[in-house]
Amino acid sequence: MPTLPSLEEIKKEVIDSQIWRSVFRGGLWKDTPRDRSAHIIGNVWLHLHPVRIRKRALEWTYTWGLGGISFALYLILTITGVLLMFYYRPTIDLAYRDIKDLEFAITLGKLMRNMHRWAAQAMVVGVIAHMVSVFLRGAYKKPREFNWSVGVLLLTLTLFLSFTGYLLPWDQLAIWAVTVGTNMAGATPVLGNEGPLGNLVGAHINNDVRFVLLGGTMVGENTLLRFYVMHCVAVPLVVGILLILHFWRIRKDSFSAAPYEPNEEKWEVWPHLVKREYIAAAGCTLFMFVWSIVMNAPLEVIANPNVTPNPSKAPWYFVGLQELLVYFDPWIAGVVMPGLIIVGLMAIPFIDTNPKGVGYYAWKERKFANTGFMLGITMWFTLIAIGYWFRGPNFFWYWPWESWLIPKAAPRLTWNVFGPNPTWRLWCTPNLSAFPLWLGIPVVAGLGAASLLLPKLIQKELDGWKTNLAIVGALALVAAAMRISPLHVSLGQGAWLVAFGWMHFYFGFVMPQRHIRTLDWARYIVTMALVLSTTAVLLKMCARLAFDIKYLITIPGISMNI
Amino acid sequence: MSYRKLFYALNIAMMGSFIWSLWVDFFTEWRPYQNKYFAMAADVLEKEGKTAEAKKMRHQWPEIKQILNRDLDRIDRCTTCHVGMDEYVNPTLKNNFTQNPYKAHPNVVEINGKHPFQKYGCTVCHQGQGMGTTVAGAHGRVRNWEQPLLDGKMIQGACVRCHANFEHLKGTEVAAKGKQLFYAHGCQGCHAVRGVGGIISVDLQDIADKPLERIAGYNFKRVKYKGKELSEDDWTRVHWILGHIENDPMEVTPNDPEAKLNAEPIAPSGMPNFTENDATGKREISEEDAEAITTWLMSMSPETKIPHSYYVDAPVPPEPKLSGAAHGKLVFEKYGCAGCHGLHGSKGRRNFNAKGAGQDEKEPVKGMEKGREPTLVDVVGTYTHEELVKKIATGVKSVDIVKFNTGGPTPPLYMPSWKEKIKPDELNDLAAYLLSIAKKQDVGF
Prior knowledge:
The complex is a heterodimer.
Chain A: H1 7-15, H2 18-24, H3 33-41, E1 52-54, H4 60-63, H5 66-85, H6 95-104, H7 109-136, H8 145-167, H9 172-185, H10 209-214, H11 221-253, E2 266-268, H12 269-294, H13 319-327, H14 330-351, H15 367-389, E3 416-418, E4 433-435, H16 437-457, H17 464-484, H18 491-515, H19 521-547, E5 554-555, E6 560-561
Parallel strand pairs in A: 3-4
Antiparallel strand pairs in A: 1-2, 5-6
Helix pairs in contact in A: 5-7, 5-12, 6-7, 7-8, 7-12, 8-9, 8-11, 8-14, 9-14, 13-14, 13-15, 14-19, 15-18, 16-18, 16-19, 17-18, 18-19
Chain B: H1 3-26, H2 30-47, H3 51-58, E1 67-69, E2 74-76, H4 108-114, H5 117-120, H6 123-126, H7 135-138, H8 156-162, H9 173-184, H10 212-215, E3 224-225, E4 228-229, H11 237-246, H12 249-252, H13 287-297, H14 324-334, H15 338-341, H16 364-367, H17 376-379, H18 385-394, H19 424-437
Antiparallel strand pairs in B: 1-2, 3-4
């Protein structure tokens, strides 16, 4: 009787076979440095990694794996999305029914839909968190400027992917969230029929940018098909291309942006980085599984273009912009602001000339950059929180513990500061303007120019404490004067004035004066424009919430209201 | 924990959660119902001595069963649980089980004979969410489905959707009574039905299908059923209609008469309070009658939703040939005058902030609630025949109504101009009828 071959022998036989060698290359794994390198080099997917990596880049606290987790979520979304495409038909007669079929009849249909929905939400959060962590580590600085810009584009596309997917279930949530979103596009200056200057170039409801998005004048069959194709084919393709670019650049620019130290230790990517990536991806997948089994994706009544839910809210990541609609006209809230955010983010590596704080968290060395960026991020999420949790029917203010079923009185009537037909009186002129345009245009332009230029023109280093004290004191004096005067400003309004006024001067004057006054003029102007448009939002919120001011200046002839 | 341990732990957990999701997906709500039916049916077959058939029945693999209604483009999966009503499992459609979901359809020979289940499906009559395979989902008692199962007698409303001849059918008596009550109490004076009737309030032609967001803004907080607040599961159209007849509509829709929320005051609902007692000391519309009216109104879904071939027409009954005051009484009922002026014109109904004849205005704000439509038996005596005809023909615009509180809201009810609707000879006879019921005035002597 012949002896049976041992397990070791079988293994060797299999690995040495022509089939195995042709598929996997490399022979028996001996765990030598050569084997580990060959494993990375010999595999097209793993080869997106370098062979060896700096040890500091392997620390969990360095990246928190946020980029990797975002990519893992993108893969989960691709897989669940492709599975969903087998069942979903993008027509208004069938779409909602197919979603119901997924819920009631299709094997694992509910799980697929839940996972796709929740992973999409998680990816939006993940990508934003990734951006914040990259910013705070200064990892966008030379030579990584371009990759940061690609990342900003990927963030924008992530939001757009999520937004296009919102429409597909064809329920009330879907069409009204998309209606809110695309109506904002209709307010684009020049290109939108409701935007300023739109009528001058002949933008109508049936030829503007909103029409292009919707494939019609309202959300309908064409919109569904358009969003479906964008969601499943066009945008993922672009995202895929940009992802390859993004990864390639990371590999070329090396992991961790910190300057090299002498004799710095390097570890092999296989297994040290790959195992960490796997753990992050597996943890993420597990989390999505459990979340999707426990929580069902929302589904409302079938879409009905004739019935508007009150309130209609945009998808949560756009609710901040919707909240801005309370304070600004749609062309500012829906187009200029998001445009400025995207362009401003992409411009950051090119205007930040501070060489310090590369590759590590540096609060002290990058005060201005970190403060400005975190102010923007805080405002973005604060506006989302207000819009999502504090707005009820008619978009009136409802505290989270108040029932939406109890109707509320409309807010007080508003007035404008500068505009046609002035009354020359403050406060008591609802829907009218207090002062004329011929005064308003130079005053607003002058204030803008002064805010823009003053920090650079004062070249002397100002004392922080004294300046702040002077600003708060001056604001308090103004508030007190307004209280004694016939205007009778209330104590609360005074407090708003002091608080928001101080924020404006601190972020828009004190900080730039201290930190960027030595910047060259081009970078200085761009930076200040971004900083001031952020603080202007704060000022406008204060003006509206505390003083019922609708517009600072209104020029109805060209629908230009600010 | 080392990476190796973490690696194994996560892989096992991922595998576990995948098995968990398969488990959740496999052990669905409907499966035990179908298995139990097979077991029960097999027991019956065994008792009858049909061992082979019993064995086959017992070992059937449970599956989702569905009926496609091609005319309505609907999928009804009701027979997945209600297996006794599935022709393929139970060809006779009869059994002796008494409990749902196992029992057979009542009156099955007649109903399946005229409306074969395999052609029509279930939801065409019963409503509910045909595609659902969970109890709450299929019965439509979920927030995203607005056609929940029609309970009890309410299902008669479904018959009326197609059967214009329902007043002569067996089994639609409640709906027929509802229709008769609707017209007897003058509801059509304000509410048109498919364009026929008054214009003061909404046309009810689509009330059974109207989106809840539109009719109630999903706010049923003030609608009470038998004096109790509704649970959210009962936030349905049935309860919206019923709530208007069984409650004081002013409580259901109080609006904003003192302009606390809006720039202008808005009067509360002008619909009469049908829980008020009539001359006999009973509620004008009893709870039973209210349900009958609701049953009939639950037939009001847009005609476009039903295939033309489903309609069963009925001839319009001829009007009785009458003349003079007797004809006038018929006219009074036909146009729903009782809606505002009370049955037989005996008592003007409430009209918020409208100052009726002889009412004082010492407390204009509180008095708004006492506002009334004219009580015809009291006031028509002061008119001549010609004056009365002219008054009905022109009507009284709401801006011309004398208000209790001049700063208060415009009264919700007003006298429409009837000259376009009531024909001249009808108008003449109506005036004659009204003058005949007027209380005799003590004039002179």
